[in-house]
Amino acid sequence: MEQKKTAREAALLALTACERQGAWADGTLKKILRETGLDSREAGLATRLCFGVLQNRMWLDFHLSQFSSTSLDQLDCCVLGALRLGTYQMLCMDRVPVHAAVNESVNLARKYAKNPRAAGLVNGVLRALERSKGELAQPEDWSIRYSHPKWLVDALDQALGGVGTQALLAANNAPPPTVAQVNALRFSTEEVLSLLKKEGIEAQRHPWVPDCLLLQGTGNLEQCSAFQAGAFLVQDSGAKLAVLAAGPEPGMRVLDVCAAPGGKSFAAAIRMGDQGKICSCDIHTHKERLIQAGARRLGISMIRTAIQDGKKRRPEWENSFDLVLADVPCSGLGIIRKKPDIRYKDPKPLEGLPDVQRAILDNVSAYVRPGGVLFYATCTLLERENDAVTKDFLDRHSNFTLEYFQLPDPIGGVERGAITLWPHLHGTDGFYFAKLRRKA
Fold it and tell me: What span, in angstroms and rounded, lies between the C-alpha atoms of 11 and 85?
């Protein structure tokens, strides 16, 4: 019988898959955790280790390179992964004894490395690091200190106008909050708080976003009975604010053109009291089924799904919808807190995204009835995918104009009709959205 894997093994396997196969860490780690059957405590440790290493990879390598006689890029990825895990525990996790961090990393190298000398190398490097731990010099370069590639630091600095860049980089490496939106169709906030408390999940009201809770000690939320009963959906507070800005009302006809996994459709349906019609679209059948399953869990009846490419015209939809939500494909650089490996992906393919975004907006704007709203949204922070796309659209569509919307304090009224939410300023993921009203 195979010995049960540890949290550190699960983290190493996920990190190795990311290196060798270009896999995404969040999906890979979830799959590994399901297969290993780790309890919530061990699963939490595996998640922190995996994400912590990814968030600090360049910084960890900066220190490791000072103690390894072998160039890091010449090491097998499972050996380098073991070194990074050990270093992260030694430098970033006060509650982990140094001897445990070293020994466990050596065991990982012994078990997974092909080279029999790998365990000795890991032991030697980490022991040397331990002896110099109190004398380590910190890199002055923000790119290395915060483990953001230079191109990304420059892009974010430009987007911020040079103000607050370091705070944003630090926020990108902070643990993201788990936010739950109460399903007000079936439960009150007080009822959900009580249900979560019974399951040992610490929850408190979001300080300024209505019907949202901040959760801690969640484990696997999909196994939570309150989740299974449809008491809430997991959704960043920035996504909830986007729906508030879009302003869906009971009885409206709403089209969500890039809907999967369905969060904004669900939030809109809750705000609409499940009265009206929402058509939620995606180009993949398995994602359509995901939306359908989410709607059933939440007890939402007004959502219908469709397989539809946002760039391809559907003539029968023209001039038919009161509100069209276009949360378009983007570089995702606003959700680095939740997907830390996004930062290491090749930036070249991102250059073509504005063309895709413009094509989708051009197409789906025809679905908005006269007097209706086109709502453009991304989860990125790059101006070329945000304000630049909005401006280009308005320059070519004189029948649309930006419209004021109101958000809860401390944001309040958004006069210009478009806003960027920043992790370090608003505590949300990075979001951009613009409200465009078609002239009647």
Answer: 8
